[in-house]
Amino acid sequence: MTTPTPDKKCTLEVRPEIWDLHGSMYATFAVEGSPPMPTGFMNSNQTLQVVVTVELEGNIVNYLCETKLCVCLAFEACGCGPVGDLCKWICLTGNDSPCKTHRWQFVIDVPPGTFNPGECGREYKLCITLGSRDCCDKVGFVYGSCDAYKITVVPPQTDIAPLPAADQQTPADDAPAPA
Fold it and tell me: Which segments within 4-113 are labelled E, that is strand?
């Protein structure tokens, strides 16, 4: 069984730097399935699941109650294609309170048809940004980013061969059927 492996192409920064707070951030990319399959290529009719994991450590992490963490996945095509972003928020309360965990996962499902493969396939650059807001809803002090991800999107695969167009039929195709 293959499971997505995290990629360490992310940075996490805490401001101000004098606080005893540090951590890590990483992402995995998989196409729909059971189990999800790690991918660098996908069909345009598949769901891409992006899981971003944020881990924080240090003496003040337990004081981050009610902080809101936000992760946004942005994408752009290499060539003509759509651009956009999808975001998820987690408020550090209840089961997500830093008193109960120091690890949070953001699951972003990119729906089928979001990426346009063009005729031959198209590469997309994927960027992830982590931001935060404190308990007073002011800009927080935990930030991160991942910007070295790429995925190639290809047209959907089918097992059915297309019929030739009417103007591409051979004379044998136009002959009457034998009696």
Answer: 10-14, 22-31, 37-38, 41-43, 48-57, 68-77, 84-91, 103-110
Q: Where are the domains of the chain?
A: 10-152
Residues 81, 116: contact at Cβ < 8 Å?
A: yes
8 A C-beta contact, residue 146 and residue 27: yes
Pick 100 or 2 by higher pLDDT.
100
> Which residues touch 177 (CB under 8 Å, ≥6 apart)?
none
Decide if 86 contacts 127 (C-beta within 8 A): no
- Superfamily grouping for domain 10-152: Immunoglobulins (2.60.40.10)
Cβ neighbours around 32 below 10 Å, total: 14
User: Has residue 77 got a pLDDT over 50?
Assistant: yes
Per the CB < 8 A criterion, the answer to whether 54 and 106 are in contact is yes
The mean pLDDT value for 37-49 works out to: 86
Percentage of the chain modeled with pLDDT above 70: 78
Q: pTM of the full predicted structure? A: 0.78
